[in-house]
Amino acid sequence: MGTKKKEVLNKIQQLGMGIINEAKQQKNPHFEVPIRSLSNIKFDAKKRIIQMGNSASKRFFFNVAHIKKFLQTVEVALTAKELLEEDKHISLRQTFYKMRRTIPGTNIDVVEEQKESNDAVEDLELISGFSREQLNINANKNGAAAGKIIIKDKGDTIDWSKLGSGGWAIPSNTEDIEFKKVNAKFILYMEKAAMWERLHEDKFWDKMNCVIIASQGQATRGIRRLIKRMNEELKLPVYVFVDNDPWGFYIYSVLKHGSISLAHESERLAIPSAKLIGLTCDDVEKYQLKRHIIKFKDVDVSRIKQLQNYDWFKDSKHWQRQFKMMKNQKGKVELDALITKGISFVSEKYLPDKIKKKDFLD
Length: 362
What we know:
The chain has 14 helices and 17 strands. It has 362 residues and is an alpha/beta fold. Strand 8 and strand 9 form a beta hairpin. Helix 11 runs antiparallel to helix 13 (317-329).
């Protein structure tokens, strides 16, 4: 067992012994859980990341309002302990089923739906100070990568440039991947798998000497952690390529500054140096994409207003200009609209031009 896994296991065992010792002393066993709410979130302007504040609440065993959540936290800690001892991993869904049992002498289940087990996992992250990946609990994998990079993963040597049309399927846990050989100048992350396939078929990663990474919508934690590690350890700049709509800009925001719901993970996941390469409102005008605008719904307009007021956007004249243009545009333009300029326009003209001119939004 590695040093880090021993640290995680020791921490879980300490939590368990703390409960036992309090019970032996006839005290009310308790956990102290940092509060996960907007009121306990702050934006560190110097680090340019969202961080969790110091407010915490106590959760007691002998408290009718707390007891079920207390039990759920103990149950997920037991699950993590078993996984670490056996050096095995399970998914969030499997964690739910492993925890789902009826409390003896009652008709009450420890967890009735997956949200409860997911919340318990997040609570254990906050209490222990270790991520769910370090607890050997994984989410579904949902991403692909290609480029001139050779890695070692679970003893296997993998060349990202020789994996056919599908590329390397990014796992949910990318913590222990070793970078053996790297030949790349930057990382291009995009929210659309279809756009990744377009660029991969055009061998964009080879022509531009880069790494291309995609998810399907919001990046998973595994993808975010992989990009963060490559940015920090390999010193590769990160360019983000998303739809021209508030949801695309939010994906960029989360990748760069972190998310409110995962503020406790920002140090591990956020990439403050990431830059938006597109699709900007200026691009919509420059490349005459207005005829491909999809009209906004009320929820989209409300989302723009929310983004405008985020601490990390509200004082930026460049971003406020984009939000204003997007409102006036009254609709979104998807990355796929670039195909109307030519099948390989995005890989041969659009992206190379923007990269050459350093035409990014920060």
